Amino acid sequence: MKSYMTHLECTACGESYSADEIHTICSACGKVLYARYDLDRAAKEIDRDAPASRPANMWRYFELMPVRDPANVVTLGEGMTPLLPAENLGALTGCSRLMIKDEGLNPTGSFKARGMSAAVSRAKELGISRLALPSAGNAAGATAAYAARAGMEAHVFMPKDAPVANQLESNAFGANLTLVDGLISDAGRLTRERAAEQDLFDVSTLREPYRAEGKKTMGYELAEQLGWKTPDVIVYPTGGGTGIVGIWKAFAEMMTLGWIDSITTRMVSVQAEGCAPIVRAFHDGAAAAEPWAEASTIAAGIRVPSAIGDYLILQALRESQGTAVTVSDAEILSAAGEMARAEGIYPAPEGAATLAGLQKLLKAGEIDPSASIILMNTGSAYKYLDVLSAGPSD
Fold it and tell me: What is the domain count for the chain?
């Protein structure tokens, strides 16, 4: 197998960079870089059914991933999570084709495993051995785990009120953990300072090109699991937004490859009422999101006041004719219980937010209940037991 990756490209100004040199963001404009592939050639040489005969993890799509040598892949078996019919929840909500993509079954209990497997694998291939990132929780644990697997050094910076499980797992995997008195944005500033001082490679959300490549495999999997079709609606909890933009990138790639005939999906962003910069920007018609002041929500993964990829998230929502909605912490907690009781899936608060958002949009008549609808549960509630038991924040 070989990767068809050709270069890196700025998503804003279009500047090209070598994929075989170390890059973070665009040096010309400071925006996000994407890995690009020779998709025309890949379309002629790859059978879309080939991944089905390979191991059931995200590296089954190796040719469309950013690692040259399979020996450099750092994996814990991430990906190919189940897409489960949610018939009981469907009956309760009036939705006839409701499904849940359960990312909580990934290694380290969340979808962050995908991004970190890709980022750590590529870092290994490029000769990087010391990583740093800020995290609201799950990305820190995933980074620590994959760095340990790869024999790398990990430095993670996390808000002091991040879920206890994330702090414990980061320490258990041998990461250098720094707790920050503040939000993920404060942890991000400290990460960039320490990375510059200590020669660490910053793998913050969309500040390097490869985490998004791991996340895009959710899009490939959904299409494969649906018989090489895209669903009508994907409801996604949005913090840094790598999941939404990754899935949207995957759909565009599959169209060029000829693996799907059309993109039928509306992307829906769900954020908490206490931190909703993307929702506000979407409904204001803005091209980018203003930072959210005094961000607050029990869902740590979507408590992101400002996202470097805000313009990419908004682009995906608008190109897909999607929408964006806020939910309260009380609604998140209620939805977590509903999903658990109805389907036996105990979602992370962020995953529960998708059900709460769907319920609001159904009530407003903004989603057709007969559509094929995917709720993305991005993590397991077992990582958040301290948060869920404490109830909503004030």
Answer: 1
100 in any annotated domain: yes
Strand-pairing partners, residue 335, are: none
Instruction: Find the mean pLDDT for residues 228-250.
Output: 97
- CATH number, domain of 289, equals 3.40.50.1100
Cβ atoms < 10 Å from Cβ of 69: 12
Q: Which residues face 363 on adjacent strands?
A: none
| Phi, then psi, of 194 in degrees rounded to 5 | -70, -35
Q: How many CB atoms lie within 10 A of CB 297?
A: 26
Out of 97-106, 181-190, 204-213, 317-326, which region has the weakest mean confidence (pLDDT)?
Answer: 181-190
169: which DSSP letter? H
Q: For the residues 181-185, what does the mean pLDDT come to?
A: 87
Residue 371 lies in a domain: yes
| pLDDT tens for each residue of 333-382 | 999 999 999 999 999 999 999 999 999 999 999 999 999 999 999 999 99
In a domain, residue 172? The reply is no
| pTM summary value | 0.95
> In this structure, how many other beta carbons lie within 10 angstroms of the beta carbon of residue 9?
19
β-sheet with 33-37: strand ranges across: 16-17, 5-10, 33-37
Annotate 21-46 with DSSP letters as a single string. Answer: S---S-TTT---EEEEE-HHHHHHH-
Number of H helices, E strands in the chain: 13, 13
Give the structural domain span for 310: 83-110+212-390
Does some domain include residue 239?
yes
Q: Which residue is it, tokens 């995933």?
A: 142
Residue for token digits 């961000």?
A: 295
CA count, 13 A, side-chain hemisphere, 363: 8
The residue whose two tokens read 């007969």 is 370
